[in-house]
Specification:
- The chain is mainly beta.
- It has six domains: about 25-185, Sandwich (Jelly Rolls), CATH 2.60.120.260; about 190-290, Sandwich (Immunoglobulin-like), CATH 2.60.40.10; about 295-420, Immunoglobulin-like; about 425-555, Immunoglobulin-like, CATH 2.60.40; about 555-725; about 725-845, Sandwich (Immunoglobulin-like), CATH 2.60.40.
- The strands form 20 sheets. Strands 1, 3, 4, 6, 12 and 14 form a six-stranded antiparallel β-sheet that branches.
- β18 and β19 (about 240-245) form a beta hairpin.
Length: about 850
């Protein structure tokens, strides 16, 4: 049993596109196709096209290739097809392909190599233990390597063959194979003639011929066309070659009506020729009447809103002896009726002016103007003005009376009115100095950019946004947008998006984005308008129009990362640090802070001096240090806390530019850290596990423009070289002869989790006899030193020989109390408060205390 989906296929379909674009070509590669003609197989017994318009691959390895297609001019190529899988059990019983008999789909690249597109897997994992069949669809856009003149697709059934347990064979069914390509049309849709309704036998009449690529003539056929025009009389010959559009002149010397058309063309158009008369609708009416007398009107092109003299009108008729034009009347004044019609665009709202007077838009009620015709039948037109943009037809008519009764003269001419320029406006003007401007929007965030075509105000006009009249009939496609960085002075240009816009109705309000930070001018460069630049009647040099300075654009957000987590250093180079004793950075932590736009791109200009709004203090203020150790606990299960300030103190670090748009913040090397010291901290040595956090949100990292951190950041520096120990300093009892001084050794000890051991890591604790308080009969000397491997060794506190009675040695015990650092004091008397270390020095050779039988040190 097979199950598949049917869908309607159109063999070839051309759709109308925008100007300059290609057309959609939809190709059905399977309906009515034949093997050996449209498709080619490596094994005719294993591939057929069945009556259901399916490509059936079966019973083992086989390749099937399509015919060749030329997509070298395609803008895009899409491939769609369906794959049907029949009934099967475990992929073995039924007519479905067995495991390993996959269906691979390839396309031929422009380098001649087959590249796989997709693979349909034939196994139980794909088809299930029991399947009633199914249809699977593929739809995808092919890469540009498929855009070449020898394109093919290929279906490959891999491996296998019919086994003893698969009597129904192995089958893949491919249907609805379609290629949807954007390609230029191969022939014009139709030819189109545009001309004025009035023509004279004594002068050629101008006609514009277009090769249209679509029914609306929205796009023109891009290739050259060989044509032969009808009727005879085309200036330069009836047969010629042109591309897209051309203007030719038709000379007819006998009054009457002729029909314009294309006698032959290569390539030929698919539809009949259409004509546009006097800017009207395109119809099949292509009749043009030639009169023996009329007006030749010369209306000059102008700048919208700026009156222009120099227009002429000639009253002519065909000479009695030749086809030349001679004056129809001379040295007379006549009232001539004028009216206008819109040509491009075909509608409008404003009147043209002649001599300051509105010109009618109705042929039934023309505006009458008295003109003085000279001896050659020529008269100057009053100053012509039109405050809008576009192509306008100025038409003239004279109806004689009296002796001239029955004389009718008509004529017309098209003139072009171009805007004086463009007004480019944004909502946030910014004045110099630019670095003091308020924030506008984030880089990458849409803002309004308005571009409006404007009429002339005065010749010295430098600001088309002030006092000028808009020209609503202006239409332009492909007005390019760019920008000029004003601040910072150095940096990257950035990108404004979109890169171009289309203007209709004289204006466009663009939702634009700017990729960088800073202050910018936004520029609009319109294309030529009816063959000339804006603000001109003939120049082809494009003009760029700039907005007011706009900004400041600021980053959308800041992102932080750990560049170097840093390392902690013990109070002693050996790493030894006591609870209660300060320790420091070995290498301070370093962070990167990067500014991004809304699209996730780095705003490189942020680190320029004029744009930078982040300070080292702002970073410092957003950093917190968790005041408890993250890896160890006190002996009561509580947290091991750091000591408050000033023992633990964080100072402002340094902020520097690491790369464009990225800053490096290094924590201060002057930071101090210390754990608290209390009895519950009497634990085995710990390795510091401290956590720093850079916060976001309220109270978190933000620059002066309130551009904040997008996410908090946590990190822990390495404390692997630091051993924080609960320590104590012990004095060792000593004795000796009463005739000489004694030395009392000092030993630093630490708690290893069960007992106290000599702290061999302590080679930094300084001792000084001056810190010892000694009872009579002795006194402290001046000796000092530093512990080595936790002990003073043969050195120690100097105790002077007893001399209670001057000059007389004495014997007895002297109690020595040492003023140790707070982190080396200990609860010697078990009263729950730390004490200074204490020991006894006994003077008298080999003699101890008279009342002491035995002495032993205990905890």
């Amino acid at each position: 049993m097979r199950i598949w989906i049917r869908r309607l296929c159109v063999c070839v379909c051309l759709a109308a596109m925008a100007p300059g674009s290609s057309a959609n070509l939809l190709l059905d590669l399977i309906t009515g196709a034949q093997m050996g003609v449209d498709w080619f197989t490596s094994n005719t017994s294993r591939a057929v096209i069945n009556a259901a318009n399916e490509l059936n691959l079966r019973n083992g390895y086989v390749e099937v290739e399509s015919q060749v297609f030329d997509f070298s001019d395609a803008e895009s190529v899409d491939l769609n097809f369906d794959v049907a899988v029949p009934f099967n059990i475990l992929g073995l019983i039924g007519s479905a392909p067995n495991p390993g008999e996959d269906l691979r789909v390839d396309f031929l690249r422009d380098d001649g190599v087959w590249e796989p597109l997709t693979t349909f897997v034939a196994d139980t994992g794909f088809l299930g233990i029991l399947s009633l069949g199914g249809v699977y669809s593929y739809s995808g856009t092919l890469p540009t390597s498929a855009h070449h003149e020898n394109f093919q697709i290929r279906y490959v059934m891999e491996g296998g063959g019919v086994s003893l347990f698969d009597l129904l064979g192995d089958n893949w069914y491919i249907s609805n194979i379609e290629i949807d390509a954007d390609v230029p049309p191969s022939e014009p849709d139709h030819f189109r003639f545009s001309f004025a309704s009035s023509a004279l036998t004594c002068t050629p009449s101008s006609v514009t011929i277009q090769a249209c690529a679509d029914p609306l003539c929205a796009s023109l056929f891009a290739d050259s066309v060989d044509v032969t025009l009808a009727p005879s009389g085309w200036v330069g010959g009836n047969t010629f070659t042109f591309t897209e559009a051309v203007t030719r002149s038709l000379a007819v010397t006998t009054p009457g009506t002729v029909t314009l058309g294309v006698s032959s063309a290569s390539p030929a158009a698919t539809n009949p020729t259409l004509c546009v008369i006097d800017g009207g609708l395109a119809t099949t009416n292509c009749a043009l009447t030639f009169d023996s007398a009329g007006f030749i009107v010369d209306a000059p092109d102008l700048i919208a809103g700026k009156a222009l003299t120099g227009g002429l009108i000639r009253a002519v008729r065909q000479s009695d002896s030749s086809s030349d034009c001679v004056p129809a009347f001379a040295n007379v004044s006549r009232n001539v009726g004028f009216w206008t019609s819109y040509v491009a665009p075909a509608t409008g709202s404003r009147n043209a002016l002649l001599g300051g007077a509105n010109v009618s838009q109705s042929s039934a009620a023309p505006t009458s103007i008295s003109l003085n015709f000279d001896g050659s039948g020529q008269a100057a037109l009053p100053a012509l003005n039109y405050s809008d943009a576009g192509q306008v037809r100025l038409q003239a008519r004279f109806d004689g009376s009296g002796a001239e009764a029955g004389l009718t003269l008509t004529g017309s001419d098209d003139f072009i009115a171009r805007p004086a320029g463009l007004c480019v406006q944004t909502a946030s003007p910014c004045s110099f100095p630019y670095d003091s401007c308020d924030p506008f929007v984030a880089a990458g965030q849409p803002f309004s950019l308005q571009v409006t075509a404007m009429a002339w105000e005065n010749d010295s006009d430098l600001d088309f946004c002030s006092g000028n009249l808009a020209t609503p009939n202006y239409i332009a496609n492909g007005v390019s947008l760019s920008q000029q960085r004003l601040s910072p002075v150095a940096g990257v240009a950035g990108v404004v998006s979109p890169s171009s816009v289309d203007i209709s109705g004289g204006t466009v309000d663009v939702s634009a984005t700017e990729s960088e930070v800073g202050v910018f001018e936004f520029n609009a460069t319109p294309p030529l308008y009816f063959g000339a630049a804006l603000g001109s009647t003939a120049s082809t040099t494009l003009t760029t129009y700039a907005s007011n300075p706009t900004g400041r654009f600021v980053p959308a957000y800041l992102e932080a990362a750990v560049v170097d987590a840093g390392t902690l250093s013990g109070a002693c180079p050996t790493g030894n640090t006591y609870f209660g004793e300060g320790f420091f950075w070995g290498v301070p932590s370093a962070l990167s802070v990067t500014a991004f736009n809304l699209n996730g791109d780095i705003t490189q200009n942020y680190t320029q001096p004029e744009s930078l709004r982040l300070s080292a203090s702002a970073v410092h203020n957003a950093i917190t240090l968790t005041m408890e150790d993250q890896g160890s606990s006190a002996n009561d299960g509580g947290a091991l806390q750091l000591a408050p300030a000033p023992a633990t103190a964080l100072n402002t670090g340094t902020l520097s530019v690491n790369a464009p748009g990225q800053l490096r913040y290094e924590l201060s090397a002057g930071d101090d850290f210390a754990y608290q010291r209390q009895s519950t901290y009497e634990v085995a040595p710990i390795e510091p596990s401290l956590q720093w956090q850079l916060a976001n949100g309220v109270g978190g990292l933000a620059d002066d423009d309130n551009v904040g951190l997008n996410a908090p950041l946590s990190w822990s520096p390495s404390g692997s070289t630091v051993s924080v120990r609960y320590g104590r300093l012990r004095l060792l009892d000593t004795y000796g002869a009463e005739t000489t001084g004694l030395t009392m050794p000092l030993v630093a000890e630490y708690f290893d989790g069960s007992t106290y051991q000599v702290n061999t890591l302590d080679s930094c604790t300084v001792w000084d006899s001056a810190n010892a308080t000694v009872s009579l009969p002795s006194a402290a000397g001046t000796r000092s030193g530093t512990l080595a491997s936790g002990s003073s060794g043969n050195e120690g506190i100097e105790l002077l020989a007893p001399d209670v009675v001057p000059g007389t040695p004495d014997t007895g015990d002297a109690t020595v109390t040492y003023d140790a650092p707070p982190w080396l004091e200990w609860d010697w008397d078990t009263d729950n408060s730390d004490d200074e270390p204490e020991a006894t020095a006994t003077f008298g050779i080999n003699r101890g205390h008279e009342r002491v039988i035995y002495r032993k040190e205990t905890r």
